[in-house]
């Protein structure tokens, strides 16, 4: 009976995860023509110190982060929380939200380290921490889901956002070695899209079949459906232009940690 109960709980936990819809939050759909920039140098310093490249992955050295740098990360997150991003340009806002999402994710892992996967951080009946409100910006409590699915996806409507936000998992598009800025966003989005689609975790081609990241299944609507997914992939990997074979999906939720 105990084993049956554990199985039921695990199934409930897994089924609790479903791809959230893109639902705009009008409060955040405002911007100015300001040329003022937001400082992300603290985040860049942490990336420089703890993010390493290993094959097709970038991995974070969570176990090596010092107490001083953990506090530096929290200070950076707090500094972003004190900003009303609506007072900035759209380009500055996009970098703000991506960096905030990624910094919050790393902070969550560090607060709970060691952990094998981020999916274990959501509690007994939750698959991951994404629905929990963990920060307040401009007087609004926000979850990671709010940032990704109610701000980034609906306002910018750019499928490459899926290559920008990182969920601390091996199956996820890599956490970029550079902090996003208004000036480098386009370069980083193109760079990360190309790298992911040409990696096995993005699109593994073998014997006339292709195994795609589950991202292309969960969020197919952002790529204009199944045909749009293949068209998008072919843009960065021309060999897939005429692909007609069998498609499957997979995702590796193991933590993106460097040993």
Automatic annotation (TrEMBL):
Is Protein biosynthesis a UniProt keyword of this protein?
Answer: no
Signal sequence extent = 1-18
Q: What keywords does the record list, in alphabetical order?
A: Signal
- One Pfam entry name: DUF547
**Positions of the DUF547 domain:** 86-197
**InterPro entries in the record:** DUF547
Q: Does the keyword Signal apply?
A: yes
Report the protein name in the record.
Answer: DUF547 domain-containing protein
At the highest ranks, the source species' classification is: Bacteria, Pseudomonadati, Pseudomonadota, Gammaproteobacteria, Vibrionales
């Amino acid at each position: 009976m105990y084993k049956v109960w554990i199985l039921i709980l695990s199934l409930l936990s897994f089924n609790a995860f479903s791809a959230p819809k893109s639902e705009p939050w009008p409060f955040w759909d405002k911007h100015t023509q300001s040329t003022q920039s937001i400082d992300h140098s603290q985040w860049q310093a942490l990336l420089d110190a703890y993010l390493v490249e290993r094959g097709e992955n970038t991995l974070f050295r969570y176990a090596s982060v010092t107490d001083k740098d953990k506090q530096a990360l929290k200070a950076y997150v707090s500094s972003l929380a004190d900003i009303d991003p609506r007072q900035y340009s759209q380009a500055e806002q996009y970098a703000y939200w991506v960096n905030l999402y990624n910094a919050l994710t790393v902070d969550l892992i560090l607060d709970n380290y060691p952990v094998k996967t981020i999916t274990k951080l959501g509690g007994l009946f939750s698959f991951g921490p994404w629905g929990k409100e963990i920060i307040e910006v401009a007087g609004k409590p926000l979850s990671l889901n709010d940032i990704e699915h109610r701000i980034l996806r609906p306002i910018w409507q750019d499928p490459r956002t899926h290559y920008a936000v990182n969920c601390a998992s091996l199956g996820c598009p890599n956490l970029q070695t550079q902090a996003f800025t208004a000036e480098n966003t386009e370069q980083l989005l193109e760079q990360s899209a190309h790298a992911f689609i040409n990696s096995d975790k993005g699109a593994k081609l073998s014997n006339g079949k292709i195994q795609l990241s589950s991202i292309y299944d969960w969020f197919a609507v952002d790529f204009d459906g199944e045909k749009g997914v293949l068209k998008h992939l072919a843009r960065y990997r021309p060999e897939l232009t005429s692909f007609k074979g069998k498609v499957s999906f997979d995702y590796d939720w193991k933590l993106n940690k460097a040993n």
